[in-house]
Design goal:
The complex is a heterodimer of chains A (162) and B (682). Chain A is mainly beta and 162 residues long. Chain A is 6% helix and 48% strand. Classes of the chains: A mainly beta (162), B alpha+beta (682).
Chain lengths: 162, 682
């Protein structure tokens, strides 16, 4: 996606928490947010593929973002939620649920407020992060969500850094 | 207009397929006049449609083609191979023409000119015959002496525009036939406030004097017949339009009433001329009635509507499962009986709706006949393509996916399987080889077999080829059947020389992949010098299956009922003590797989286990699960792209309580296990 349009373009993002870190997804990709419900694990699939749930009569795959991001498996709390996303995988619109620790806020961010990803010092492969939005007490990583789902890799962590 | 063109394209494709089929019939019996009539009719419809929708090239082309068959149906020309080949080529060309959006395609253009020339040659060659024909025609005209006058009442249906028919074009065509008086009638046009501009309110009273006969008139309306109320009456054996007194009479009649009373009109003209023979009238009305009958027997529905219908039925089945569960919890006898009733109805509804989408496999076979016909010539082989059980029905979507792989199989058979004529003679085989396509039902599956009586597949050759391509290593030991199955591996093409018939890089692996996409299986059996049989086993429909609902740990699974053979209960200790996973059932020992191990799920139950015995090829294999819940109609939902590597689970279904159950693909599961076993063993 081309982000270098006019500086005052406002995009809406949904932020969520994974462990101690905050991420955000463009709201255009977000279909709905669900409370945690029983997930049917599909046998013999990668660990980060949590299983499937029933979303209005259709079967929706759910992904544990903790494992996908190389963190420890998510611990279920009352804040645990499933964000239902529409992403494009191999040029095909696919719906997928992602399991997050908590949904945080809806943010309106101007293009000029999005900062470039520093080439050093981040844990995550730069290509999956579109940019960084600074808050007074920290920052939020804006995810390039299509890319995240177009890789079968479990980890986003750069191999060279530990 | 564009949407009409699309509609016509669709229709034209059907017509072209019909044409192709009729041609194959004609080839069987070149003197069958019914078939030539049929061919002529189809060409005529194509011509009419294409001219109306601006497919000018196609219009001209079919016009010439039609002339050839006109000669044939009038016994002025004999059908020979030349004509048949030319018509087959023309059929292909028509297919291209219909897809052509503009006339710029040069490659098509060349073919177009070439074919046109050939067609003209045929007609010219029969010039003598044509001269005769014209003489005959003149004779017959002379016999009829003079022109006849017809009264035509043409009342288009309101909806006629929706079919893309322009009534004025039809009238234009009538004008070409002779002298004409046209009286448009406007009395049915409603107040402009409620006029629907897409409707046709005008109708026509037409008087036509022509020497071309009543058939020429009906032919004008041949493809508008269903969209109008048409009455053609011969009112005189002479050209009444030349009589001013008659013109006066008809103008009077038109003015005085909205409806022309044919009888009255005839009475009026009685003095001038004799009445037309009742016989022909009866004949035309009879044939029209037949047309009406066939149009009611079947209707054209877009497959999108059918897909919607199926989605709704699937939803209904899902809801019904919820209702059943609720009724069980309520323990109310009244509710239960209603629920049972609903269940019965929804099951029948499901079956009926699914049957709508079933079409006989016959519909896709025409091209195989053609393929066999054409390749026989090309490869210098004499091959007869035979079919059995072509009335066997399959889901439309399955048929669509199936036709390419089948085509490939037949091609392979013709190219690699069947020997050329000399070689067959040496082997004391009949010179003419046979490829048999056989379809039949087997439980809830449809089996399609393609067998040839060719040279068969040499497993040794396959094995060596696989080794040379590095697909298997030298020291692997395979049975002959396993060797032959190597054909299905990617990157395997045995053709020693690449012909344009097969060996285009796509091999049997593509066939296998395509067929497993529609949950089918394919296998090969072959005996050297006797022949090869390829068997494809397919599910009847794609979206709802009858299954056995079972539970392992907290997860529920559906095992397709079609593969379930029997169920047994076992003490867990028996299973634990089983040697080599062999257990004794009623009267035989069977191997069992513990699904709890394979799926890595903790069992909740410890003392007893259920064994579901499923059929896998010729053998039975037991699957150990915690509990069997019961029979269940499962609406198949795909697991989606993210689970594309998942083989032993073919999909999921939503249960009555809203949770998801997984559908087990027993064949894939067992195959996977068998592979693991051999890996562990070797």
């Amino acid at each position: 996606m081309d982000n270098k349009k006019t500086d005052n373009n406002i995009s809406t993002f949904l932020s969520f928490r994974l462990g101690k870190e905050f991420f955000a997804i463009n709201a255009n990709n977000v279909l709905t947010i669900l409370e945690l419900r029983p997930i049917t694990k599909v046998p013999n699939s990668p660990d980060y593929m949590k299983g499937v749930i029933n979303l209005r009569g259709n079967v929706l795959p759910v992904i544990d973002m903790h494992l996908k991001f190389g963190m420890e498996s998510l611990k279920i709390t009352k804040d645990t939620s499933i964000i239902v996303l529409s992403v494009s995988i191999d040029n095909e619109e696919v719906q997928v649920g992602v399991l997050v620790d908590a949904v945080d806020a809806v943010l309106e961010i101007k293009s000029k407020e999005i900062e470039e990803v520093p080439t050093v010092g981040t844990k995550y492969k730069a290509e999956f992060i579109k940019g960084i939005f600074k808050l007074s007490d920290g920052f939020i990583m804006l995810l390039n969500i299509d890319l995240v789902f177009n890789t079968e890799d479990i980890l986003l962590v750069e191999n060279t850094e530990k | 207009m564009e949407q009409f063109r699309e509609k016509f394209k669709e229709e034209a494709n059907d017509l072209i397929s019909d044409l192709e089929k009729a041609l194959l019939e004609l080839e069987e019996d070149v003197h069958n006049s019914d078939v030539t009539q049929k061919i002529f009719r189809i060409m005529h419809s194509l011509k009419g449609g294409s001219s109306m929708f601006g497919f000018n090239k196609m219009d001209k082309f079919t016009h010439h083609l039609e002339n050839v068959y006109d000669l044939i149906r009038n016994n002025k020309l004999e059908v020979d191979d030349n004509i048949l080949n030319l018509t087959f080529e023309s059929v292909d060309h028509l297919r291209n023409l219909i897809q052509e959006d503009n006339d710029d395609d040069t490659e098509n253009q060349e073919q177009h000119e070439l074919l046109l020339q050939k067609i003209k040659q045929i007609i010219d060659k029969e010039a003598g015959a044509i001269d005769n024909a014209t003489i005959q025609q003149i004779d017959s005209v002379a016999a009829n002496k003079q022109e006849s006058t017809y009264y035509i009442s043409f009342i288009p249906n309101k909806e006629i525009f929706k079919f893309g028919t322009n009534p004025l074009y039809l009238i234009d065509e009538l004008v070409d036939l002779g002298e004409i008086k046209v009286f448009p009638r406007f009395d049915k046009i409603p107040d402009y406030k409620i006029t629907d501009p897409t409707h046709c309110y005008i109708y026509w009273d037409i008087f036509l004097s022509t020497n071309q006969g009543i058939n020429a008139i009906s032919e004008v309306f041949i493809f508008a017949e269903d969209q109008c109320d048409l009455n053609v009456h011969k009112i005189s054996e002479s050209n009444l339009l030349k009589e001013t007194s008659f013109l006066g009479i008809i103008e009077e009649t038109i003015k005085s009433s909205n409806k022309v009373d044919v009888e009255q009109l005839k009475d009026l003209t009685k003095d001038i001329e004799s009445i037309f023979t009742k016989k022909t009238q009866k004949k035309t009305s009879k044939s029209r009635n037949q047309n009406i009958d066939t149009s009611i027997n079947s209707i054209r529905v877009s497959s999108e509507k059918l897909d919607n219908l199926i989605n709704w039925v699937s939803e209904l089945v899902t809801i019904q499962a919820r209702l059943s569960l609720y009724a069980q919890e309520q323990e109310s006898a009244d509710l239960t009986s209603i629920v049972e009733e609903v269940e019965k109805i929804s099951r029948r509804l499901r079956d009926d709706v699914f049957s709508i989408r079933l079409i006989p496999i016959e519909t896709m076979l025409t091209r195989f006949y053609r393929l066999a016909r054409e390749l026989s010539g090309e490869l210098n082989k004499d091959v007869v393509f035979k079919t059995e059980g072509t009335e066997t029905e399959l889901d439309k979507n399955i048929i669509e996916v199936l036709s390419d792989p089948l085509m490939h199989i037949v091609r392979n058979s013709m190219d690699h399987g069947i020997e050329d004529i000399e070689e067959r003679k040496k082997k004391n085989k009949p010179a003419s080889a046979t490829i048999l396509l056989k379809a039949f039902y087997s439980g809830t599956n449809v089996v399609i077999q393609v067998s040839d009586d060719g040279k068969g597949i040499d497993p040794e050759k396959i094995r060596n080829h696989a080794i040379s391509k590095g697909i298997i290593s030298k020291d692997v030991e395979l049975t002959d059947k396993e060797s032959i199955e190597l054909l299905f591996l990617p990157g395997f093409s045995t053709a020693e020389k690449v012909t344009n018939v097969s060996g285009r890089g796509v091999g049997m692996d593509v066939v296998k992949r395509k067929i497993s996409e529609i949950r089918g299986e394919v296998s090969i059996d072959s005996v050297i010098d006797v022949g090869t049989t390829i068997t494809i086993k397919l599910p009847l429909t794609l979206s709802i299956i009858d299954g056995l609902l079972v539970q392992i740990g907290e997860t529920k699974f559906v095992i397709p009922l079609s593969s379930v053979n029997k169920c047994f209960e076992f003490k867990q200790t028996v299973l634990d003590n089983a040697v080599n996973n062999l257990i004794r059932t009623e009267n035989e020992d069977i191997v069992y797989l513990d699904l709890r191990d394979l799926f890595e799920i903790e069992s909740l139950q410890t003392d007893t286990s259920q064994i579901v015995v499923v059929q896998y090829g010729d053998t039975k294999i037991g699957l150990a699960v915690d509990t069997i819940i019961g029979q269940y109609q499962a609406v198949l939902k795909p697991l989606g792209k993210l689970y594309k590597n998942q083989q032993s689970i073919s999909g999921a279904t939503i249960l009555g309580d809203g949770t998801v159950a997984l559908i087990v693909d027993t064949n894939q599961l067992i195959m996977q296990f068998a592979n693991n076993e051999t890996k562990i063993g070797g």
